[in-house]
Amino acid sequence: MKEDFLHFIWKNRLFSKSNIKTVSGEKLEIISTGTHNFDSGPDFFNAKIRIGNTIWAGNVEIHTKASDWYLHRHNEDDAYNNVILHVVETADREVLVNGKVLPCLVLNYPAKLKENYLLLLQSEQWIACEDRFRLIDPFEVKFWSGALLSERLLSKTGEIRFILQQNKNDWNETFYQLLARNFGMKTNALPFELLAKATPLNILGKHKNNLFQIEALLFGQSGLLNEELIGDDYFLKLREEYSFLYKKYKLNPIEAHLWKFMRLRPVNFPTIRISQFAQLICKSTALFSKILETESLKTLELFFDVESSEYWANHYRFNKASAKIPKRLGSSAFQNIVINTIAPVLFIYGDINEKHELKDRALRFLDELPAESNSIIDGWEKLEIRAKSAFESQALLQLKNGYCKNKKCLDCRIGAKIIRVAD
What we know:
By secondary structure, this protein is an alpha+beta fold.
């Protein structure tokens, strides 16, 4: 049995509590199991036990077999010198610490707990507990939603911090790059991110009052102006303007072949998205500052209500005219931006700077948006768990991807309850 299961038994005090004795036969009372340690060192800190008439305070180490103490070389690590109790499933060897025998407890727990856990580990269903999920009150998931959502948002902290560090703690530049990636959606996320990194916000800011020049910069930097097209005046004008700006700022464009057009709806072509992005930059180059100032989601949506430039009203690609249709960013695209960029960055900025009102605002924004529609949310609906907002759908995505996918049932509130059904 894996050690993490034994940690679960110990932490939740699911072991037999009557007439406990150490391997050497001394009477043992567990006053406190201690605090679970997820870093290096003993498994539980600050435990308290009574052996005979003496109370001991210190750390607890847990192994499947007592001999693992030496297998893991704890005898060579001073961090384990303050261990007061060795908890094992099999006591196959005596352990010495500082020349004295370390008290050892063989963990005794109901066999049904192990049976339930093994069934989950061996399950090949959509989620491990699918056939027993209905044993759990659906409100259990609702109660856990807030913590799951916060966990999902904080899981992006490392990536955002890394980008922030690359940008020398410039939040505006960092948000601009993350937003650009979101504009590319899944298919063109990478080239859009590369485009933003190749075209610093401060350069765009120098042309914020001239949409044509911003489009020239972005389309030129995208590599999409490298084609040889005849008869498209707008394309030729963009290329001429970019040629001047390219030399002025000593720019390096990305490769045009990175952009994907196939299997995309024409309104999501990178050409349309780049034009809409240019419109947004024209509205404000201090994008993140604008986000911090805006408390209303409806006001924020008005700010993101952008339309591609006039040329793109009857084009989806350069030199290929089409029926005239205005191409606005749209509410679904805005919702996607809030869910995947605005809310996470707001939450993490608030967490880093201890501005709890911003964290609350990020959660409120998600609560005001409709739930997402995807295969994972559909899967939960089949189990009669229905998300009413993006707040809840994001929490369900975290539950599926953060717990069910990796079978972290011991850390899951639902899995833990199912394991304990026969407790």
